[in-house]
User: Fold DNA ligase from Krasilnikoviella flava.
Amino acid sequence: MTDTENPVLDEAAAQRRWAELVALVEADQRAYYEDDAPRVSDAEYDARMHELQAIEAAHPALVTPESPTQRVGGAAAGGFATVEHVERMLSLDNVFSVEELRAWDARVARDLGAEHVGYLSEVKIDGLAIALLYEKGRLVRAATRGDGRTGEDVTQNALRIADIPRRLAGDGHPDLVEIRGEVFIPVAAFERLNDLQAQLRERVLTEARTRHGGRAAAARPFDEERARVAALRRFPQFANPRNAAAGGLRQLLDKKEGMELEAGLARVESLRLYVHGIGALQWTAGEHTELARQSEAYEHFARWGLPVSPHNRVVGGVDGVVEMIEHFGVHRHDIEHELDGIVVKVDALDDQRRLGATSRAPRWAIAYKYPPEEVTTRLLAIQVGVGRTGRATPYAVMEPVLVAGSTVRQATLHNQDVVRAKGVRIGDMVVLRKAGDVIPEILGPVTALADDGYPREEFVMPERCPECGTPLRPMKEGDVDLRCPNAETCPAQVRGRVEHIGSRGGLDVEVLGEVTAAALTQPLEPAEPPLRTEAGLFDLRVEQLVPIRVVVRDSETGLPREYDGTGEAAEITMPDGSTATVKSVWPFRKKRKLSRAEERAAIESGEPLFEASTNATKLVDELELAKTKDLWRILVSLNIRHVGPVAARALAGWFGSLDAVRAASREELAAVEGVGPIIADALLAWFDVEWHREIVDRWQAAGVRTWIPEHPGPAAMAAQADEGPTGPLAGLTVVVTGSLEGYSRDGAKEAVIGAGGKSAGSVSKKTDYVVVGENAGSKAAKAEELGLPILDEAAFTRLLAGGPAALEGSTPDGTDDDADGPGAD
Ligand SMILES: NC(=O)c1ccc[n+]([C@@H]2O[C@H](COP(=O)([O-])OP(=O)(O)OC[C@H]3O[C@@H](n4cnc5c(N)ncnc54)[C@H](O)[C@@H]3O)[C@@H](O)[C@H]2O)c1
Ligand SMILES: [Zn+2]
Assistant:
């Protein structure tokens, strides 16, 4: 599986590697199970275990009962009384691919002499195991797994968990039953817990400030920085729900007081439980029917008031399991808790007994693990980038690492407060998470490795803009974000605005991307850029472009890319004052096609060897075409705060010309549907700035059309509005979710608006139709829950053309083909 796996080591090398791995895995287990503070990601731990297994498979002499492959990981750690489990608690073996799963299924079928095996397929809850011992229906003990034989007595904390009944419901309970389950913190509760930690930090700070101010001898000023670090140590941000849950169940509440107790209680009360197994079971003879299947046991559990996961499925064979794996591969983040795999169990208890268990795990169950979404890597540097709006954003530069299928080397850290709250220092090993399509995020440092000898450095937010040197400051009082106030000529901001003009939501000029924007605003040569601001954009000539040489910058960060040997090398000064050799390119020129003789002649006579590239002529041609694009695109291109495509469409549609927008009062602007007072203020503020007005003037002088031909003007629009909206979708709100074949995401919205309807982003009772495409997620489910009419793409097309009347005669819910979706069992 892993590339470190090497079964052809000679005996001595195998022995050495084996000992090394055992030491690593044991240290990992202590950090994970006893301290609730892992030092490596689960993926790395799994890889180590896997390598260990491979070595032992090739060298069976190395297998001893003490090997981690033969034991249940974990131990009963300090602080709690230890208890013996009535029956041993086991771990689970893992598979990492569907092929391995099918091979496991084939072995089980062979051992049972069956053709198909009936399974119970469950979501693998990322929490920690608990064993609940009930005697005649009364909870007598709750224990952690520990090493499988001995666990920690956590009954006191368990009694505070609402999901754990003190008495089982109903009657006819066994004399003794050991019920196993998973304690976890739901994702939403986890976020609330972290909010509470932040609030407690603030309270600690306020108290410290007050104490300081009250002291008569407050000669020294209050050390804000130190106080914040201390507060963070008392109430840290939790890295993930699993560790927060493990720490929550295994805390000594009676040793806590004050704010610590408040935090501790909140943590234990946010714990939930799903039961997923049976240990010892003793009934008074004759009082009960024998249980035949695990799923039957769950039915008993549910009747006794114990929570059973709603995601379990009973399936007829391995294909049903594979379907579930595929389903949760896509919907991994659509359920209440974190999951890291699918657990498959032989459902028939007789068969479970026949298959038995190894010293570590049952043979009748297996866990399929999804690819990791959390990995660890080294934080090499924290740099600061400046964006289009001047916001200065610190971002992490990490050792490249593979996570959720892609290589990640950078992650935004948002602002200096976020850096502080995460408690990361440059040089730390950090936990990096990339879940689904969400952008990668650093969760925090690996605290267990805080003293690994690698040099550390605290991050200090720079005081000046790294691109133009202007002092950074918040734009409003109370703003956390710092901005570069030099909007007019800060290279980063001009570059960002020019790129925005070329973007899909702006003038949609294909050649005007990040490299072109940088070339036009910050060329290495000529020293004077063709554009100081975007005002001159439509005056550009091909001759101006040809001599431009530029440094290629990273699209995320705006920083120069290291020289990679493919372009021309250029020496430049970096934001921190150092120099670097980076890659540079000539984006607008190409070599003329000359014979050798012609070339020699050209060199002698000083004629140029280069001419304009297709990119250069294309840019000028496309800008020419862009001059008569829709008015809303021009509006977006002005880079006015809050004026994106939606507001720009509303403004253009109502006023019909840029001059009318400019002449409108605050009230007139705010009154337009989809505009409102915030955008109205942003517009007025924008037109108030002289260099902004100059952009409009110069664009108009260059021939940019800033009106809609044949638009009747705002007065006529107002008159018409009194008569109500028109079009087949007038007065109707439509939500489009998932992907459609014939419409892009924006295209579908535009089509709804074009037909006189409203396009909404979220489903509510006010929604009239929900259009559901491929891979639709929670919105589709919500629509079903609210009983809203659901349309497929074909019905949507009919609706756009003919309004609701066009849908009559067809079934509003489409077909019933996919009735066995996620919630159908
Ligand atoms: N990062 C680290 O340093 C580190 C160290 C040790 C363990 N780990 C993590 O723990 C894993 C190994 O731990 P493990 O031995 O506890 O095994 P495991 O977590 O892979 O599987 C066994 C456990 O799964 C749990 N589980 C969740 N849902 C279940 C369900 N529906 N049915 C049955 N059991 C369910 C049970 O608590 C059971 O004990 C590793 O693969 C890794 O993910 C990480
Ligand atoms: Zn600047």
In short: Residues 94-185+272-364 form a domain with the D-amino Acid Aminotransferase; Chain A, domain 1 fold (CATH 3.30.470.30). Residues 1-5, 811-825 have pLDDT under 50 and may be disordered. The CA atoms of residues 71 and 360 lie 5 Å apart. Residues 28-29, 31-32, 38, 40-42, 45-46, 73, 91-92, 94, 122, 124-125, 129, 145, 182, 276-277, 343, 367 surround nicotinamide-adenine-dinucleotide (ligand 1) (CB under 6 Å).
